[in-house]
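Here is one chain, start to finish.
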Amino acid sequence: MNCGCSKHIGCFAPNQTIDFGFQAPCPGEYIFEIWGANGTYTEIPIDFDADDLVVLPMTFNENATTTIKIRTPECVRDVMPGFYYFTTSDGACSWTVDGISPVC
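Its structure:
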């Protein structure tokens, strides 16, 4: 994968925590940028300490695909200027999740 791709990480029921599979490299505010299937956009800021699992403790009651990007906190940009978003281990720039739906 390369930047511009999304990695599908599964199907989630309402109120199920989404685990992105990595730990926070440093303390700070991590901003989840979320695009819904109907074109809605929202930002959810969550504070993490160093080594916390990066998780989104809520899901959406949509029977559709949602795309999520995670903006890096200032502590990451201080040591890696220009690195604004976390990527997956295989290079995708965003994650997609599905609500409980027939496709799941």
